[in-house]
Amino acid sequence: MPIIEHPKEPLPNFYNELNGSLQMAWKMIGRATKDRKAAFRTPVLATVSDEGPQARILVLRAADARLRELIFHTDTRSGKAAELGDDGRVAVTFYDAHRKIQLRANGIAQLHT
């Protein structure tokens, strides 16, 4: 069976440049706060619990690139609220299947009630 090679599309300029990658990431995050169909609209948030890591999908509500903040809403009665009260360490994973871009971020969450 012959091997068929597909011509490779050129990679966008931001792929090989840190500042460009950060600018594109925040652009995609910013779009997700306004566009319900944006790929980054529903990232996975992982928290730490007594049973180990817990991951769930949340809706991104707002973001501030200058402060490097992501804002989500949750019910204070949820397990994740209790987990964040005990240990604020989180990981967030965004994925755009069309562009084949995955963005992972780690940080400390603060619960505001």
Summarize the model shown.
This protein has 113 residues and is an alpha+beta fold. Helix content is 20%, strand content 33%.
Tell me what you see in this structure:
This protein is of the alpha+beta class and 113 residues long. It has two helices and six strands. It is globular and about 55 Å long. The model has no long low-confidence stretch (mean pLDDT 91).
Spatial extent as radius of gyration: 17 Å
The rounded distance between the terminal residues' Cα atoms is 62 Å
Give the strand content.
25-35%
Q: What integer is the average pLDDT? A: 91
Alpha-beta classification: alpha+beta
Count of DSSP H/I helices: 2
What is the helical fraction, as a range of percent? 10-25%
Q: What is the number of strand segments?
A: 6
Shape: globular
Give unreliable regions as ranges: none
| Major β-sheet annotation | 4 strands, antiparallel
Order of helices and strands: HEEEEHEE
- Largest sheet, spatial ordering of strands: 2-1-5-6
